[in-house]
Write a structure and sequence with these properties.
Blueprint: H1 11-29, H2 33-40, E1 58-62, E2 70-73, H3 76-86, H4 98-113
Antiparallel strand pairs: 1-2
Length: 118
Amino acid sequence: MTKPGTKQPPESECQTAFQALAGLRRLAFGPSNDAVRLLLCDLSESPVEVGELDLFHVSEIKRPKGGGFEIKFYDRLAALQLLLEKGPEAAGGHQEGLSEALERSARMLARHSGNDAP
């Protein structure tokens, strides 16, 4: 909920911020099973379709000259720290109530349809 008299950021900024926070939550709390699966699989015996793997947590993949893989992950602790700096709502808590969220959504829909909502 915004304070009376404060200017709300444009919708695109809100959406970008929401996506950034969703990405941080995914880095901090999401599974990295597919990266481990890629690391442990024997590509000569059972090829893995890389496009089907969720490698969101992976920052770098290397194949050293000696063979094998080297996989580096994004820092989960850094993602958690950024979420905590943004407050409990960024870490997955809910700051506004259901009725406030519905009212805000109704105003946004009205703006897009050309109707002015109070």
